[in-house]
Design brief:
The complex is a heterodimer of chains A (about 140) and B (about 775).
Chain A lengths: L1 H13 L35 H15 L3 H14 L4 H14 L2 H14 L5 H18 L2
Helix pairs in contact in A: 2-3, 3-4, 4-5, 4-6, 5-6
Chain B lengths: L1 H12 L1 H31 L5 E4 L4 E3 L6 H10 L3 E2 L9 E4 L3 E5 L3 E2 L4 E2 L3 E7 L2 E7 L2 E3 L1 E3 L4 E5 L5 E3 L9 H11 L11 H14 L9 H10 L6 H17 L2 H11 L1 E5 L2 E4 H10 L8 H10 L12 H18 L4 H8 L8 H4 L5 H12 L4 H6 L3 E4 L3 H19 L9 E8 L5 E5 L11 H4 L2 E2 L5 H10 L8 E4 L4 E2 L5 E2 L10 E4 H6 L3 H11 L1 H11 L17 E2 L1 H12 L3 E2 L5 E5 L5 E4 L5 E2 L3 H17 L16 E6 L5 E7 L3 E8 L14 H12 L12 E7 L13 E7 L14 H4 L1 H10 L2
Parallel strand pairs in B: 1-16, 3-4, 13-15
Antiparallel strand pairs in B: 1-12, 2-11, 4-5, 5-8, 6-7, 8-9, 9-10, 14-15, 16-26, 17-18, 17-31, 19-24, 20-23, 21-22, 25-28, 26-27, 29-30, 30-31, 32-33
Classes of the chains: A mainly alpha (about 140), B alpha+beta (about 775).
């Protein structure tokens, strides 16, 4: 194995591409988008559109009024508009949590997490929701 | 004893009395029978309301990609009137320099009752830029949804009930003027009209003129009997008298307006003016203009004979006659009638806008609702059902499927023609957007999208590779053997699969084996992972619950419907989250009270890293693999993923794939299972690609999950290589994947990053 690795590195050095010996740290994830369908630049998260923002706000009002079904309908409208945004799924997850549907709360958290860029606030919020839902689901 | 003998004697003495008593009894019995029949029908009918099914409401918001022309098309499809002045009437709009102004209709959504409201939509190029009403700005607004059909009973009668207060007065006047001038005076039968008809009929020697009152026509419609015998006429007249005796004129007229037969649409019978208005003008009855109402009244005499689409001259002539009669009757002024006579027929152009009615989608709605509702609830209680159907997507799919099939058929006819099906769902929420079950979309026949269970061929392969990637023993650049293999089956037989090309390829990467759909490598991989594991994966993705893990499963010897395949590929499009497919969003009762919602639900069924790797291969299928022939039909910048499928002897041609927005499955084949001569790529894929590009679908661009890192990999060998080297692809692979480097082409240390440091650590350990 070591021999193979040494050969590989030697080949790399000899190949002439080694001019730019970068720091041996993880390559920054903002590398140019590959042609292979690899995603957006993860470190920048688009802000939520005013439309989704308004629908989420409407959903919160309905949630506070105890109208969970209506709130759910509003948040789902936002999901249809911006299904790639972690905030809309997080919102639905928090709503499910409040409704006592912990399994779906956790799933929505996972969905939100899968859309949240590394190190973003959305990521930690999603992780928090997952943890809360798991804990609440275990309670007798 | 003696008394009875005596009576019998009496009767015998007066036979005429006995006869007339008997006759009276028979007539009385008959009348009683008629009374029961007709009142039962009348009372029953008043409550027999098919559930109405709505498409998704179009959501408008700043940033929505929608050119003004497309919004205008949607409004016309909704039957909105184009006007010149600022729109005041509900259901009207005008184009302005900055965009479109409209006055929406009152609509009871699942979650709110919206009164008619003005809305101004401004555009920046092909994008909505601002929504407002006066000084108020809106972030989001929805249009009223299109009524796409109803769930009518099996006898085929469909109707949309209108209440007396929704009935335009001029319609009532027109019906009286044309069909029954003395409606307000007679008692169900009009002797004068009858006499006139008899004279005319005697002269011509046959029954030509009806002389029927509206009440008689109503009776005739109830019992759907067009035989014009004298006996029927008498029966009809008797029933009409009975109806008039029981009910008042207003009820009868309203029943007539809702009952009368107004045309045929496949095996759906259009009944009543409410539905006729939607069917012929795509607009509610109370929004119709004089010339449109007159056309409907004109059609009462013979909906087929005066069909405005098939016989426009005839229909126009009779409509103008109706208008003249209206003026003579005094219901409108001469000037109004003449102005209306100058108008075009003005029916909604079904040919341009696609089918008016979506039987394939409605079948799915019915299936989803059947779990909670009895059939009679759906066909009679007047429920309103809100669905996710997108009429624009549906129309595109219908048009492209028929065009694609026509060009593949090259002039074949009848049963010789290829059949096809399309299912389109939203990529992340599992909503079904469009279902096409046949080349004739409006035809309510065999629905292949839901009912054709066919072998899926190579469409199964992603499940094999997902199972392998999830096992942790493989990554996408792992190398496997593509060499002949003999599999001993449980019955002792030997199964020797082969590649499509007939050749074996030696050592290949998982990537290449899937992208180029190698059978030998896939079978070897599937056997190594275990067919049971593959079956479980397929089920978890949304396939049938019990799949027998025969080795032949690995090459797709499992039968599924296009809808089931859409569920499976939807799970991949959704990054490993399965979202159960839903056609229905919510249901309200006849009074608008919410009954039920079908909430969005998801379940993560696969590791994100495994799904991400798999999807990279499915993107390559369209770039360089079995799906590359579609590249000419797809927008160059579009990233899409998918897989071709061809069953044994070319009996089924499949393509299943997705973008960031849509999941779509296309199936082509013959109903009698003859070979098509088409592969998945030469058949289904071509139609798939033309639909996707027409939809202007967004690219598939998921975020790489944690635990993967991007590397340049040699496509054939799976070794790391420099981007400048021939035939490399950039892949996100597990950070702990052990990778060799391509001799003479290996990556520099700078590109190796952490991987290099780990190796150096290991080397100098």
């Amino acid at each position: 194995m070591r021999v193979a690795a040494l050969v590989a590195i030697a080949a790399g050095l000899l190949s002439g591409c080694a001019g730019a010996l970068g720091p041996a740290t993880p390559a920054p994830s903002s590398s140019p988008e590959g042609s292979e369908g690899a995603g957006r630049v993860p470190s920048v998260m688009d802000s939520l559109s005013p439309a989704s923002e308004a629908l989420l706000e409407q959903g919160r009002r309905q949630r506070r009024a105890g109208e969970f079904a209506q709130a759910s309908a509003s948040v789902e409208r936002a999901i249809r508009i911006e299904p790639d945004h972690p905030a809309v799924w997080l919102e639905l997850g928090q709503l499910r949590f409040e409704q006592g549907d912990y399994p779906q709360a956790e799933q929505m958290g996972r969905k939100s997490l899968s859309l949240a860029p590394a190190g973003s606030l959305a990521q930690s919020q999603a992780a928090q929701l997952i943890a809360d839902a798991q804990r609440a689901g275990k309670r007798p | 004893m003696s008394r009875s003998r005596k009576r019998r004697r009496t009767v015998r003495r007066r036979p005429w009395l006995r006869l007339s008593a008997l006759l009276l009894l028979v007539v009385a019995g008959w009348l009683l029978y008629l009374d029961i029949t007709v009142t039962h029908k009348f009372d029953g009918r008043r409550w027999d309301l098919p559930a109405q099914v709505y498409a998704r409401p179009l959501e408008l918001y700043a940033g929505l990609q929608m050119p003004p022309a497309r919004l205008e098309r949607e409004l016309l499809r909704l039957g909105y009137r184009s006007v010149r002045q600022a729109p005041r009437q509900p259901g009207s709009f005008r184009r302005t320099r900055r965009g479109i102004e409209l006055m929406s209709r009152e609509f009871r959504f699942w979650d709110e009752l919206r009164p008619p409201s003005p809305l101004a939509i401004e555009f920046a190029g092909a994008q909505v830029s601002r929504l407002s009403s006066g000084a108020t700005e809106f972030a989001v607004a929805r249009l009223d949804p299109l009524l796409v059909g109803s769930i009518f009973p099996t006898h085929g009668e469909d109707r949309l009930i209108v209440a007396p207060d929704q009935t335009p007065e001029v319609l009532v006047a027109a019906l009286k003027a044309v069909e029954d001038r003395r409606f307000d005076e007679h008692h169900g039968v009009d002797p004068r009209a009858l006499l006139r008809a008899v004279v005319v009929n005697l002269r011509s020697g046959e029954l030509q003129q009806g002389g029927s009152t509206l009440t008689q026509q109503l009776v005739k419609n109830y019992f759907l009997d067009n035989r014009r015998t004298l006996w029927r006429k008498i029966r009809e007249a008797a029933m009409a008298l009975i109806l008039e005796w029981h009910y008042d004129k207003r009820d009868l007229l309203n029943a007539y307006i809702n009952e009368i037969y107004m045309g045929q649409d496949g095996n759906r019978a259009i009944h009543g003016f409410g539905l006729a208005s939607q069917f012929y003008f795509s607009r509610p009855l109370d929004e119709l203009e004089l010339h449109q109402l007159a056309l409907l009244v004109a059609m009462v005499k013979g909906p087929a004979y005066y069909n405005p689409a098939r016989h426009p001259e005839r229909a126009l002539e009779r409509r103008n006659l109706v208008l003249q009669m209206l003026a003579d009757f005094g219901a409108v002024t001469n000037a109004e009638a003449m102005a209306a006579q100058r108008r075009r027929l003005d029916t909604w152009d079904q040919a341009k806008a696609g089918a008016s009615y979506y039987p394939a989608f409605l079948q799915l709605v019915r299936t989803q609702l059947a779990e909670q509702y009895r059939d009679e609830d759906l066909t009679s209680r007047g429920l309103r059902v809100f669905t996710g159907l997108d009429p624009l997507v549906q129309a595109t799919a219908e048009a492209q499927l028929s065009a694609g099939l026509a060009s593949l058929d090259r002039g074949a006819e009848g049963a010789e023609r290829l059949a096809g099906a399309v299912v389109i769902t939203s990529a992340q929420s599992g909503e079904v957007l469009a279902v096409v079950g046949d080349r004739q979309a409006g035809f309510d026949g065999f629905n292949r999208a839901l009912d054709a269970r066919r072998p899926i061929g190579s469409l199964v392969k992603p499940a094999v590779y997902l199972a392998a990637l999830q096992s942790g023993r493989y990554h996408l650049a792992s190398v496997i053997e593509d060499e002949p293999i003999d599999v001993t089956l449980e019955n002792g037989d030997t199964w020797a699969p082969s590649n499509y090309s007939g050749e074996a390829h030696g050592m290949v990467t998982l990537l290449r084996a899937l992208v180029e759909s190698f059978n030998l490598a896939t079978v070897r991989l599937g056997l190594a992972v275990g067919p049971a594991q593959v079956a479980d994966t397929l089920t978890a993705m949304g396939g049938p619950p019990e799949i027998t893990p025969y080795p032949s499963l690995l090459l797709g010897a499992v039968e599924m419907t296009p809808l089931e395949v859409a569920q499976i590929y939807g799970t991949l499009a959704n990054g490993g989250f399965r979202a159960p497919l839903r056609a229905v969003r919510s249901v309200v009762d006849a009074a608008g009270e919410p009954l039920q919602r079908f909430p969005m639900a998801i379940e993560q069924i696969a590791q994100p890293g495994a799904v991400y790797q798999l999807n990279q291969a499915l993107v390559q299928v369209l770039r360089r693999g079995t799906g590359r022939s579609a590249s000419g039909r797809l927008p160059a910048e579009l990233v899409a993923a998918g897989k071709t499928g061809t069953s044994d002897d070319y009996r089924d041609s499949w393509f299943a794939g997705f973008t960031g927005e849509h999941v779509m499955v296309v199936w082509l084949g013959y109903d009698d299972n003859r070979p098509t001569g088409l592969t998945g790529a030469s058949g289904a894929l071509q139609i798939w690609a033309s639909i996707i590009s027409e939809l202007n679908s967004a690219s598939f661009a998921p975020l790489p999950p944690a635990g993967l890192e991007k590397l340049w990999i040699d496509y054939d060998s799976g070794l790391m290589a420099r981007p400048a080297c021939a035939d490399v692809v950039e892949l996100a692979l597990p950070v702990d994947a052990r990778l060799g480097s391509k001799p003479g082409c290996g990556p520099g240390l700078g590109m190796l990053g952490r991987r290099a440091r780990e190796w150096l650590d290991e080397v100098f350990d």
